[in-house]
Amino acid sequence: MPFGLISAQGEFQRCMEEAFEGIQGFSVIVDDIIISGKTIEEHDANVRSTLIRAREKGVKLNLQKCVFKCNSIPYFGHVISENGIHPDPQKVRALREMRTPNTKDELQTILGMMNYLARYIPNLSSINQPLHDLVKQQQFKWKQQHDKSFTNIKESICSSLAFFDPTAGNVELQVDASKFGLGATLSQNGKPISFASRSLNSTEQNYSQIEKEHFHQYLYDRKFTVVSDHKPLQVVLNCPISKSSPRLQRMLLRIQPYDLIIAFRPGKEIPVADALSRIRWKKK
Hints:
Elements: H1 8-19, E1 26-29, E2 32-35, H2 40-57, E3 72-75, E4 78-81, E5 84-87, H3 93-96, H4 104-116, H5 124-127, H6 129-136, H7 144-159, E6 171-177, E7 181-188, E8 191-199, H8 216-219, E9 223-228, H9 232-237, H10 246-255, E10 259-264, H11 271-278
Parallel strand pairs: 6-9, 9-10
Antiparallel strand pairs: 1-2, 3-4, 4-5, 6-7, 7-8
Helix pairs in contact: 4-6, 4-11, 6-7
């Protein structure tokens, strides 16, 4: 199947569901299969049924990518185990590794991000009060109470992430690029699902703003909106590839399989991605 086509993944999903219809404990999202059971015996029986059906339908499995009898597995942004479903640590790594601010400007950027996520953080006003007090002070001195407040807020955000529903719509990717880094927030129906960020190397720092702008498993084969504070991105997406620079041509070819639209919003309206791109991360 030519996976360069926008509709390919949806068709593949339908074929997989039809091929394994009726198998107990079987679930699939495109080519990621999970087989579960309440007991070892039930699990083994479900695995056996799946393998028999795969042979009947001519479905080949890559043994190197198969893992059997696990107590927990990462699956579409979450870790599924006998204890329930929890956010995958990789989803919140960008947030947890955000270092403490060194200036008032950096702190105000972080507070803007926190206020944007306030409806998902219980008791935010009381948790972040020490940080608001610090902004008002003439001299910026980061103390233990500020560190505690900062850590508590990050943990509150991480624990409140939504579970991604592959069948639901309204997926939005907010992106931002600063001189030194990239930041992104993925949300569904307005609630954050995952965060990402990384620093730029010396070569990438010389890119124009339009060229600086992971989430493949969430975004492939669905309509979604990319939100950026860089308005020229809207023009670039509709520009003929032949009229773009070689580097932009490669970028445009890479996103061709995705069904996306680009929307412009001022930076103050996408504070999470903005903060993730501007605040440096903890060094390993």
